[in-house]
Amino acid sequence: MIVLIAGAVCLPLLPIEQYPDISPVQVAVVSNYQGASADVVEKTVTSLLERQINGIEGMRYMTSISSNDGTSQITVTFEPGRNKDLAAVDVQNRVSLAEPTLPEPVRVQQTV
């Protein structure tokens, strides 16, 4: 019983740095195409961005959702331990490369 109480008292004193980083880094790309259906968003926005983003260093997988309100959301998941700032910069660079191929209403909203 004494060991259990001593362990419970010492638990908050353990430094967090001792625990390994096991959660993967995720970066989300959200675009909005006002008035477009999910099918149009998928064909003109989501698929173009997915093709450009695919193959980024350290990427594990990518998921996407295109909805009827004109929203496209792509979530890129990276290997655990990947620097989140570098991952975000890599994704942003790829999105910038795809931007000229996106429909005009989507490009206008991204630059605002």
| N-to-C span | 61 Å
CATH architecture: 2-Layer Sandwich
- SSE-based structural type: alpha+beta
The CATH superfamily is Multidrug efflux transporter AcrB pore domain
Q: Report on the biggest sheet.
A: 3 strands, antiparallel
Order of strands in the sheet with the most strands? 1-3-2
- Uncertain parts: none
Count the beta strands.
3
Question: Given this structure, which CATH class is correct?
Answer: Alpha Beta
Mean model confidence by pLDDT? 88
Radius of gyration, whole Å: 20 Å
CATH structural fold name:
Alpha-Beta Plaits
Structure description:
Strands 1-3-2 form a 3-stranded antiparallel sheet, covered by helices on one side. The chain has 4 helices and 3 strands. The protein has helices at residues 2-10, 38-53, 84-98, 104-111, and strands at residues 26-32, 59-66, 71-78. The model has no long low-confidence stretch (mean pLDDT 88). The chain has a single domain, classed as Alpha-Beta Plaits (2-Layer Sandwich). By secondary structure, it is α+β, with helices and mostly antiparallel strands. Helix 2 packs across helix 3. Helices cover 43% and strands 21% of the residues. The chain is elongated. The N and C termini lie far apart (61 Å).
Give the secondary structure arrangement, pairings included.
Layout: H1 2-10, E1 26-32, H2 38-53, E2 59-66, E3 71-78, H3 84-98, H4 104-111
Antiparallel strand pairs: 1-3, 2-3
Helix pairs in contact: 2-3
Notable features of this structure?
4 helices, single chain, Alpha-Beta Plaits, alpha+beta, 112 residues, 43% helix
What does this entry show, briefly?
With 112 residues, the protein is α+β, with helices and mostly antiparallel strands. The protein has one domain: 2-Layer Sandwich (Alpha-Beta Plaits), CATH 3.30.70.1430.
